[in-house]
Amino acid sequence: MSRPPETALETITANCRPQPAIPAVLVLMLCGLLARSAAQAGGDSLVAWALTAGLVVSCGLAIAAGFCSLFPTLAWMGLAWLLLRGGESLALHGQVAFWAGMVAAAGMTLLQVWRVRTRRFVPTIADGPSPDGD
Description:
Blueprint (H helix, E strand, L loop, with lengths): L1 E2 L4 H8 L6 H20 L4 H20 L5 H14 L7 H26 L7 E2 L8
Antiparallel strand pairs: 1-2
Helix pairs in contact: 2-3, 2-4, 3-4, 3-5, 4-5
């Protein structure tokens, strides 16, 4: 059985679930591993383009998960900044993807905050065991 959050702490924890962020964070971490190779290889290398594609995919995953939690987009922005150091060492197309992702993730965060504040999105809290016995 589930119910809407009743206290401020329940509201915060219900709107900041980390589980939806897992796919976006994994793809972004793989991009972080590519970042050093891409910087050494130059902007026209296949690695640099793979890094750019990975940034776009990971941001898309974070935005999709942002429809049910605030955590994915905030985690994506923070981790992207830490891993890629503000996008300084990326090729031009990587920098564009990085900053476009930052703007898109920030926009999704604001949209989700608006949805929560206007009660267009109401997360639920699970009380008791799930119906399938887990």
